[in-house]
């Protein structure tokens, strides 16, 4: 009677790195039962199942790290599983595999969901870099195989969607390009974080000389002016007013790490004026509240490009002493990333679209 092979047993590949094309050997007693290798640690990495189907352990680790990263970012296993399109038990199992591999706890429960432990946070930062490397490698291979990249992940500040990004996308569409674009419309600080994390390939954002990033390279596009704006017929339109009058108005403002918020705060601090807290704090561009500005006496700071778009309808810059500010904008990418042919074409078209955006408005 033939000897039955036990279930749930996997056998090691003998040491040569020739892969599955070479001769496979199995050492007696080197079995993988219930997820634990019985053989020497030097053989960790690859396995061949009893059905002779190769399983690449490294690929599984990469996938588990990506799932773990999503759990950290969303601070919820349930939300992360939904975003990944998998079940929560599958996500929990992946995280347990990582914890068993490293021998440490990576996540801990919080009243609102989950949070990384100190070691989990360190692993998350490494996983982000690995995720970016995997994406760049895929793009590189696709470029070599087909001569062009299949997709480009682009981040852009809201003020330049209409005047810069839209014309560029229109050019690609008009020429029948097979490239697909994934866009993220956010404020500059968020875009640059996404870019460093490997979630974007390029970002059109504000240049901040006080907080340069050694991980990013950039091309300066030019400058953009921003103004304190109010509705037509606002009490401060058409009459003299002081900075104290400005400070007394309700304001719609973004977070403190955004340049235009810093400008407004510095305006009043330098004048020795205590301004009232903003009526609306938003993590988006204040331009999304344009309708609120048209209906009330609220003020905000808006870029020329936003004023020239549909957001600026019925709004006008206030005259002096309300100042205007100038910001430098650039196109950013990761220094360590593969700079594809598509990225090069995109960069040249963005530069041209930025230079021509004033002409397109007239």
Automatic annotation (TrEMBL):
It comes from Verticiella sediminum. Belongs to the LysR transcriptional regulatory family. Residues 76-117 form the HTH lysR-type domain. One of its GO terms (molecular function) is DNA-binding transcription factor activity. Keywords: DNA-binding, Transcription, Transcription regulation. InterPro entries: HTH-type_LysR_regulators (IPR050950), LysR_HTH_N (IPR000847), LysR_subst-bd (IPR005119), WH-like_DNA-bd_sf (IPR036388), WH_DNA-bd_sf (IPR036390). PROSITE patterns: HTH_LYSR. Pfam families: HTH_1, LysR_substrate. The keyword Acyltransferase does not apply. This is LysR family transcriptional regulator. GO terms for cellular component: cytosol. The keyword Transcription regulation applies.
